[in-house]
Design brief:
This protein is α/β, with parallel strands linked by helices. The protein has eleven helices and 13 strands. The longest helix has 24 residues. It is globular, with a radius of gyration of 21 Å.
Length: 356
């Protein structure tokens, strides 16, 4: 007997990247940071008194919110924390978009957006990205809500701050959610700088990428106090304690360690640019990237994905129109990217007809 409700039966769940448990894999499929967490964050976690675990964590994530606010130059009341940016985004869909029409989002973007639209009865209006995969800000005017990732995923392409502001300004009747999971690798100024100017702007960030804390599941949103209060209201109707003690402690310490964060961010960017340059020189089409991954046209992308699998290298492939000729490759260490490049060269040499 199928006990699922009608809505659950209709859902098409998001499919996350594979997480192999056996050793020997080069894992370039989930955009994790290849470098260790901040030593200060590791020390803070080691020094947590076990006695504190008998108590519930701070339901307001006060210390973490203060650390984020101090770093970004906003008030703690402008910050909301959740169990990864996925939870923060899901709460935003419930708080601001549920049962609404004309909530605009790109056709090529983060795969969870259509899942949440289905889950929370959002009548999404899909705006196709251009032939070059760019988002056209003019497609996002006069909506009851907007969701964009900037830089976008899986393409790695970013809008300028001026283009983001145009989208926010042209939608005064709806909340504009800007998912900045990859902004720290972009060189583009964050839309956080606009929250004092626009009451309808919510910027969502994560500790999973540039802070090397994917395992702790910490995300946050920055916006007008009215928006963060709305998120608190929905959160407290679902889970009053979303972030555990370890997550709050480790993330706050990582946020304070700016020197280590800057060093790691720059290492990833340097490896990304070096890898892209070498692939371009070898004849591959690689989109410009503002993220910690590359979007690479492989022709027979599925064949290339499977070829890499046989070499124990994981990348991401989607069997979807418009992007089924591409793979997404997370930036690993220099040694990992060298192994990927050599495998890519062997693929072209052994299967020259598969390049088209």
């Amino acid at each position: 007997m199928n006990y699922l409700c009608d809505k659950a039966r209709r859902l098409t769940p998001y499919t996350a990247g594979a997480q192999p448990v056996e050793a020997g894999w080069i894992k370039l499929n989930t955009n994790e940071n290849p470098y260790p967490v901040s030593p200060k964050a590791a020390e803070a976690l080691r020094n947590l008194p076990a006695e504190r675990l008998r108590l519930y964590p701070d339901g307001t994530s006060g210390e973490l919110r203060q650390a984020i606010a101090a770093c970004l130059g906003v008030g703690a009341e402008n910050v909301f924390c959740g169990n990864g940016s996925d939870e923060v985004l899901a709460l935003a869909f419930q708080a601001f978009f549920g049962a609404k029409n004309k909530v605009v989002m790109p056709d090529i973007s983060y795969g969870f957006y259509p899942v949440w639209s289905e889950m929370y009865d959002v009548n999404a209006e899909i705006a196709p990205v251009g032939p070059d995969f760019t988002i056209n800000s003019s497609d996002y005017k006069g909506a009851n809500g907007v969701v964009i990732a900037n830089p976008n995923a899986p393409t790695g392409i970013a809008l300028s701050l001026a283009e983001v502001e145009e989208i926010v300004r042209s939608n005064p009747a709806g909340v504009v959610v800007v998912d900045e999971a990859y902004i720290d690798f972009s060189g583009v100024k964050s839309a956080v700088s606009l929250i004092g100017k626009y009451d309808n702007l919510l910027v969502v960030r994560t500790f999973s990428k540039s802070y090397s804390l994917a395992g702790l599941r910490v995300g946050f949103a920055v916006g007008n106090r009215t928006l963060t209060e709305c998120l608190e209201r929905v959160k407290n109707a679902f889970n009053s304690y979303p972030l555990d003690l370890f997550a709050q402690t480790g993330a706050a310490a990582a946020m304070h360690d700016r020197e280590y964060w800057e060093e790691g961010r720059c290492r990833v960017i340097a490896t990304r640019e070096k890898t892209r340059r070498r692939l371009l020189e070898a004849g591959w089409n690689v989109l410009p990237s503002h993220t910690n991954f590359l979007f690479l046209e492989a022709g027979n992308a599925k064949g290339f994905y499977e070829y890499l699998l046989n070499s124990k290298i994981l990348v991401r492939y989607w069997d979807r129109p418009r992007i089924d000729r591409f793979v997404r490759v997370s930036i690993g260490t220099d040694d990992e990217m060298e192994a990927f490049i050599q495998c890519a060269r062997r693929f072209w040499k052994e299967k020259p007809t598969k390049r088209q």
